[in-house]
Design brief:
Blueprint lengths: L3 H10 L6 E5 L12 E2 L9 E2 L3 E4 L10 E8 L13 E5 L11 E4 L3 E4 L2 E4 L9 E2 L10 E3 L7 H9 L4 E5 L3 E7 L3 E2 L10 E2 L2 H11 L3 E8 L3 H8 L7 E5 L10 H7 L3 E5 L3 E2 L5 E5 L2 E6 L3 H19 L9 E5 L10 E10 L5 E5 L8 H6 L2 E5 L11 E6 H6 L1
Parallel strand pairs: 5-6, 13-16, 13-17, 14-15, 17-21, 19-23, 22-24
Antiparallel strand pairs: 1-12, 2-11, 3-10, 4-6, 4-7, 5-9, 8-9, 18-20, 20-21, 22-26, 23-24, 23-25, 25-26
Length: 402
Amino acid sequence: MIAVEEALARILAAVQPGPREVVHVTAAHRRVLAEDLAARRSQPPLAVSAMDGFAVRAEDADRAGCVLQLVGEVPAGRMFGRPLAAGEAVRIFTGAPLPEGADAILIQEHARLEGRQVVVERPVERGRYVRPAGLDFERGWVGLRAGTRLDARALGLAAAMGHAWLSVRRRPRVAILSTGDELVPPGETPGGTAIVATNGLTFAALVEAWGGEPVDLGIAPDDPSKLRAALLEARAVDFIVTSGGASVGSYDLVQATAADLGLELAFWKVAMRPGKPLIFGRLQGIPFLGFPGNPVSSTVCAIVFLRAAIRTALGLPAELPYSEAVLDRDLGANDERQDFLRANFVAGAEGGWRVRPAPLQDSSMFATLARADVLLVRPPFDPPRQAGERVRILELERVLAG
């Protein structure tokens, strides 16, 4: 067995950031920017009004009782056709550009309109209620950096900076194959000893959440020829992921079958629980991850290894977002394997939140994982821990989201 950190390092050494492609800003949500993005225009491009009122020269409205001549109006999206002369005012609305010569806004609450005359009730100073050109950003400002995952705010900013087309990392394509005679597809009623194949569905959802594109290869039975045919369907993909058949039983055929197809094995077995029988190598040049069949084991392996591989292909940091929490109950000493215990947040007696590991950690118990808040991570040979000690955790909601 090799350590989790060594396994992860070997996997990531085999992955490079993927190629770029150009997509329209309307189709770029959650894509990863491949290059820095600089503003092609200033925002706002001209000085504009921040309020509804009257555009004036501050020197003409510097005391209460001043009377100005109303000479027109300018709504947002239009320009006033000439410079503002001394003693004049122009009706203006929020977001409209200031007429040439105007340097302040007399808001409507501070003025009184008498026919075509504007009476100043409260004086204004230069620059009052004016948004100067470039207040938000100026042309050439680098507003978004390469490696940014484009959320709603980033997309709005990209569009405001004048970009309709964005260079992004291509989504890595992940071929997903489930193996085992006992599996039936979701939606079918299993009979006898059959079970519903959930790993493929889980992997596909995770791949999408992490920014990849799942390619469903379906279910392969425990038959070398059929398993071989299924693996050969993994064309034009960036990763191949299998579940099941990775251990040492008579029907664990994945490694041998992949070897017949030219698998260059990098390692097999990782010192982790759950997830020990994990295969990694290259199959015809494509990174190959053979995960265990138990659903908790395979999902934890995906969180630790597949997420990092996909993020590396997208040019994102691969590190898991570990944090700390207070332990709620005592734990015995750990053995040579790194533990990923399903746990939940519970209210502490003295206030605040603690983490309580589930009493049963069998790798077949997916319901426990589905209800868990965190994975409590214990290094190999971790000594006994007492309630109240701080421990390392992975918050699942955060990890599963990306």
